[in-house]
Design goal:
Layout lengths: L5 H12 L34 E3 L3 E8 L3 E10 L7 E6 L4 E4 L11 E9 L5 E11 L5 E11 L8
Parallel strand pairs: 2-8
Antiparallel strand pairs: 1-3, 3-6, 4-7, 5-6, 7-8
Length: 159
């Protein structure tokens, strides 16, 4: 009986090996890329922190036909006093995807852009989709918004 659980324990141990994040891209940020000017115990001058300043955090798509893919580039600048590192860009659903953002730190004054795509396939009506940008800023998350209306195309009638 004491050996009956051995296969289960070995399977669980092997499963843990699958989550080592080795599938990350080669240009993904590492722990060495993150430099925080202070800790929660020290008072930090806000000007020493990175600040992500977007030209705009919202985009109005207007009325778009169903099945259309909309792409928008959101431009931003590091207007803070230390290196800015974006660690994640995540859409609110599978139809809205963030891609092509800088993976390495941006020095103060440097600019970058994040490309967001919205696929309207299978959607209809008013849409408000969000993308969360996570960085070493305060607050840590900035939300970008895409709004619009997806219009279903009329279905042809067969005679």
């Amino acid at each position: 009986m004491k050996y009956a659980l051995l296969p289960l324990i070995l399977c669980l141990f092997a499963a843990c090996q699958l989550t080592d994040y080795s599938e990350r891209q080669g240009d993904a940020p590492t722990a060495n890329d993150i430099k925080v000017p202070g800790s929660g115990y020290d008072e930090v001058d806000p000007e020493d922190m990175p600040i992500i300043t977007f030209d705009s955090t919202g985009y109005r798509m207007g009325m778009i036909p169903q099945g259309t893919t909309v792409e928008k580039k959101f431009r931003f600048t590091n207007s803070g006093g230390s290196d800015l590192l974006i660690t994640d860009v995540r859409g609110s659903c599978g139809c809205t995807v963030g891609k092509d953002w800088p993976k390495k730190p941006l020095r103060p004054g440097e600019a970058g852009e994040i490309t967001i795509t919205f696929n309207s396939e299978g959607r209809s009506g008013k849409q408000e989709k969000t993308v969360s940008v996570v960085a070493n800023t305060v607050p840590a998350t900035t939300v970008l918004t895409l709004t619009g209306e997806v219009v279903a195309l009329p279905v042809p009638v067969k005679n």
